[in-house]
Amino acid sequence: MDSNTTVIAPEQLREQQAFCGRIRALWEKRGRVPTAFVDTYGCQQNEADSERIRGMLEACGYTMQADAEGADLVVINTCAVREHAEQRVLGNVGALVHTKRRHPDQRIFLCGCMMGQPQVAEKIRKSYVHVDGVFSTHHLWELPSLLYRVLTGGKRVFATADEPGSIAEGLPVVRSSAFKAWVSVMYGCNNFCSYCIVPYVRGRERSRRPEDVIAEVRQLAEGGCRDITLLGQNVNSYGHDLGLGVDFADLLAELAQIPGDFLLRFMTSHPKDATEKLFDTMAASPKIARHIHLPFQAGNDRVLQAMNRRYTAEQYLALVDYARSVMPDLVLTSDVIVGFPGETDEEFADTLRLVERARCDALFTFLYSPREGTPAARMPDPFTREEKLRRFDRLCALQNRISEEKHAACVGRRLRVLVDGREDGVLTGRTNGNRLVRLTGGDDGWIGRYAEAEITGASTWSLTGRL
Ligand code: SAH
Ligand code: SF4
Ligand code: F3S
Fold it and tell me: Is the CB of 189 under 6 A from ligand 2?
């Protein structure tokens, strides 16, 4: 491997396992089974990390519970992508003062992307003294030793040293679903979009070895998993750091050969790295879902350049045209940022035009949020929040109309859905393209199974169907 990626050595992981044993012994001596609550904010990447955190905690003898009240350990996995996300986290961490007062032995850990920002870690150190431990994403695998130190030393621990990033293979995992799974194929990001904090808190891109990913997917498929989402901030640059001549399309093609009745999904794709080869690979395999999340962020070329996105609106549309030419039933979703510093009304009108032309099935729209340390946070931003909110509303109204039209076109079709749960009393399922279907005419026995649904109705956000 000609890469700079460090894979955590097996003996280091064995050392962590030994700490799990010591923690179990500690609780056995206290004569009871400890409980833990793991709370997750942010994206699927964090959800996947939390499954590892739960895995390590179970190895330490903890059983999981669904809230912080009375838990012996609370771990909050945080997100730093927008200010709103950070405020929610800090609000909830503040409230833990009270739960800890009612249960003084409670230990509280904060981890995840917020903890990768030195100024945040410092704020926790100074102003949130009820927090016992902090670790950034780079130190996740060290949780057992950090927890042991807190339980035995009585001192707070801070594992936030900035590191180039590494990969820990083989951590224990407790998956939150038996039939849907996340599989990280790479970590970190090299793109430094000018508004984004992620590269600063998650380090440089590093890909897992193909054989490790294949083994994990094979194991999931053998266990009956039906829906597997490959994760990375920019999966299309998978493998570039490995120097093995294997790119993301190659990896996908390989994974699609694994036997089993499952669908492969992936996110996120960066338009600058999405290739025709990727779309051809998708088109060639019924095992790869007909869905791509391909964020364009803005429709104006000056703004795109200021965002450091490295494509133009025309290039984005050409990519989408190609993808649809090989997969006419492709479901396309995207992220858009409204109110990037200095974005004028005319420039925003280009975003509306791109939305009209790309006709995505759904958009995730965000109001720009300045992130300390990113280049965009230092750019002049003359427009008021009210002006930005007005644009935001126009964008949502436009996309809602398009989403409704697209959903209405599904009515009368029979679609295969994976029944995945119950929401407000009704069964829910996901189509191949990841559309949400609210289902009538079935019972809980269907959960985790594929079914045919006749689509009977449509709204902006979902379809309705009869099993
Ligand atoms: N790696 C993924 C997504 C990362 S964050 C990608 O490149 O698409 C998810 C989304 O949050 C981004 O696509 C972007 O639309 C939004 N986002 C990121 N930073 C933001 C910021 N500072 N303000 C508002 N939205 C932001
Ligand atoms: Fe952030 Fe851009 Fe990397 Fe996505 S590709 S995580 S938006 S820097
Ligand atoms: Fe948030 Fe970190 Fe994901 S900042 S969006 S949890 S990569």
Answer: yes
In this predicted structure, the answer to whether residue 162 has a pLDDT above a threshold of 90 is no
pLDDT (0 to 100) of residue 163: 78
Residues with Cβ within 6 A of ligand 3?
42-43, 45-46, 79-81, 113, 198, 202
pLDDT tens track for 310-330: 999 999 999 999 999 999 999
> What's the pLDDT tens digit per position in 348-382?
999 999 999 999 999 999 999 999 999 999 999 99
pLDDT of residue 385: 96
The 10 Å Cβ neighbour count of residue 386 is: 7
Ligand 2 centroid from CA 187, angstroms:
12
Report the separation in Å between the CA atom of 192 and the middle of ligand 2, taken as the mean of its atom positions.
6
Q: Are strands 450-458 and 414-423 parallel, antiparallel or unpaired?
A: antiparallel
Instruction: State the distance from the centre of ligand 3 to the C-alpha of 198, rounded, in angstroms.
Output: 6
Tokens of 342: 């200095």
Contacts of residue 349, defined as CB under 8 A and 6 or more positions apart, other chains included, come to: none
Taken in order 341, 342, 346, 347, the sign of the CA dihedral is negative
Closest Cα to atom 10, ligand 1: which residue? 335
pLDDT digits (tens, 9 = 90+) for 288-298: 999 999 999 99
Which atom of ligand 3 approaches the CA of 85 most closely? 1
